[in-house]
Design goal:
Layout: H1 2-11, H2 15-21, H3 25-54, H4 59-67, H5 69-102, H6 108-115, H7 117-120, H8 123-134, H9 141-146, H10 155-166, H11 168-181, H12 184-191, H13 196-225, H14 228-234, H15 244-253, H16 257-298
């Protein structure tokens, strides 16, 4: 009898602890209502208005706007920039995260600072930096002109600007996770005779796969939606150097509102797809964590 009483006493939380972790019902509803109102006014209503304005004049007008040559060219260039920049940032992010999290070397803090640079520098400034380096009056401008090479106001400049503004995303998703995991598993694999490549493929990569996918999703979304840096280096040549955001701006400034919202709906759809993928990745991570916890409890 006394044993049962003691066990019940140990499982019950003190009243002050319960009070500290549970808010009154009205407080929770007020906080939830504020969050929902904010999301409705600043997210759902603007997003719905984009699709409403896109289809306001009918499906035919919408299809004509998204299939006309300049729009197709903008979509193609946006995809090219993303297809080039995302894999490069994937390689850089994995290499940088692995080096920072698993090794100690001189200049480690400097590398971390440089990775965060695009977060602290305006994208417009980043575009101006590339103009200063590769523009006609820039450091390499004369050499590029003599060799008939064009970077600024051409596809290479757009790709470079996109790479710059997106390279922190993969690395910043991987670094905290790799640091939290430590080096024990990699060291054990090396002791057992695994090579560096085998250790990475069999130990490191499986442990960070969901964070890696999450970083790639964010990197791709930013690459397709980048405006500031790309605007500076593109030259706004219609049908040649305009990405989707730049094409939307031109259509809106020319008062082609239906066409601009139609093309904007493509980027909005990309944002929705990104959110869905992000949600799926987070759910998968939570599921694996719950399974690992259940295995630990069972053990």
């Amino acid at each position: 009898m006394s044993t049962i009483a003691i066990s019940n006493h140990q499982t019950m939380a003190p009243p002050n602890v319960v009070g500290a972790t549970k808010e009154p019902v009205w407080v929770r509803w007020v906080l939830i209502s504020i969050a929902l109102i904010f999301l409705t006014l600043f997210l759902f209503v603007p997003l719905a208005s984009v699709f409403y304005e896109a289809f306001k004049k009918g499906v035919d007008v919408y299809l004509a706007a998204v299939t006309e040559p300049d729009a197709v060219s903008a979509v193609t260039l946006t995809l090219i920039a993303a297809v080039i920049s995302v894999p490069l940032n994937l390689v850089f992010g994995v290499a940088a995260a692995w080096a920072i999290a698993k090794f100690d070397f001189r200049g480690k803090s400097i590398l971390l600072t440089l990775i965060d640079l695009p977060f602290s520098v305006s994208p417009v400034i980043a575009g101006l930096i590339y103009v200063l380096v590769f523009g006609l009056q820039g450091w390499f401008g004369e050499w590029l002109r003599d060799h008939d090479l064009k970077v600024i106001f051409a596809v290479p400049g757009i790709v470079l600007a996109t790479i710059f503004v997106t390279f922190p995303f993969v690395a910043r998703e991987l670094i905290p996770l790799m640091q939290a995991q430590g080096q024990e598993q990699e060291e054990a694999a090396r002791v057992l005779g695994a090579s560096g490549f085998q250790t990475f493929m069999k130990v490191t990569l499986p442990n960070v796969k969901w964070a890696l996918l999450y970083g790639v999703i964010l990197c791709n979304a930013r690459a397709m939606g980048e405006f500031g840096a790309v605007s500076v280096v593109s030259g706004h040549v219609r049908g040649q150097t305009n990405t989707l955001p730049l094409h939307i701006e031109i259509l809106y400034n020319e008062y082609q509102f239906a066409a601009s919202f139609a093309v904007a709906s493509l980027l909005a759809s990309l944002a929705l797809v990104t959110l869905v993928l992000k949600y799926m990745v987070e759910r998968q991570v939570q599921r694996e964590l719950a399974q690992a916890k259940d295995v630990g409890v069972a053990a």
